Amino acid sequence: MAGDERQVPSPRPGRSPSGEELAFVRDARVGHLATVDDRGRPSVVPFCFAVLGDEDPVVVSALDEKPKHVDDRDLARVRNIRRQPEVMFVVDKYGEDWSRLAFVQVRGAASIVAPGSRDHEDAIQALRRKYPQYHAMAIGQRPVIVIRNLRATSWRGDGESFGTQTRAYGSERADPDV
Question: Which of 3, 20, 74, 141 has the most C-beta neighbours closer than 10 Å?
Fold first, then answer.
């Protein structure tokens, strides 16, 4: 995705996500997004997202119509991203069989993209494909978060690394059409 209004730095820790890590992230229904405020305090929120692309993937998330107490521009994650674009999110799989635990942690450079750009349109289409709830929301009229320059780290409870299987580790989609 191109056309962001400013260049954002590329976070250094980690490495480009593997195909299996991307599959694991794509299959996840929710992640947890961490940002940092102007005083250096972390803030973590659950978020719905979609992954676009394979070669140079980006992650997108809508500022949707779920109830909020403030305007979109006043949301902590939006303020934090504008001040400090480096973010991190994690998706994980938990179960009582701890040999099946897994997570992928992704760092990236986030920006807030307003309606009207190709990046925004691509994000809205991907989010609506993944989450049927978004068809009933006017997310096309609201900003989206776009996370670029992805760097990943991951862990599996069986001691293996991601990339040793052809299918996302422990992946079980709730909706086979996603």
Answer: 20
